[in-house]
Amino acid sequence: MLMPPLNFSLILPLLTLTIWACVLLLVDLFVKRKEITALLAALGLAVSLGMTISQIGSSGTGFNNMVVLDGFSIFVDALLAVTGLFSVALAYGYIKRMGIERGEYYTLLLFSVAGMMLMAQAG
Fold first, then answer.
1. What SS3 class is residue 70?
2. Considering the chain, what percentage of its residues have pLDDT values greater than 70?
3. Contact at 8 Å (CB) between 41 and 110?
4. Dist. CA 4–CA 37, nearest whole Å
5. Do 49 and 78 form a contact (C-beta atoms < 8 A)?
6. Taking the complete model, does pTM exceed 0.85, yes or no?
C-alpha cells in the first residue's frame, strides 16, 4: 500500500512560525537586550502572516485529511497572526515597565499561536 504524499505547502506558515520560535529560543540565550527578541518575534509573525495571505484562494487537504486548507482556516490563521503581532506590541511596553523582561515570553507566544493555527486547520 502506497503512502499518500505529504503536502507541506498546506502548513507552510505554521511550520515557518514553529521553526522561527525554535530559533528565537536559541537566539534569546545569547542576546542581552530583550528588545531584539521582541522584534524578532514580531518579524516571525509578520512572515507567517505574509505566507498565510499568499495562500488566499487555495484549498486542499493533507496528512490523510487531518489538515484542511480552506477560506475559513486562512482567515483564522491570518487573524491569529495579527493578534500575535498586537500581543507582542502590547506586551513589550508592559514587560519593560514592570521590569520582568524575559525572552521566553515571546517564544511561548509564538508556540501558542502556532498551536492555534494548527487547530484552525484541523480536519
1. coil
2. 96
3. yes
4. 39
5. yes
6. yes
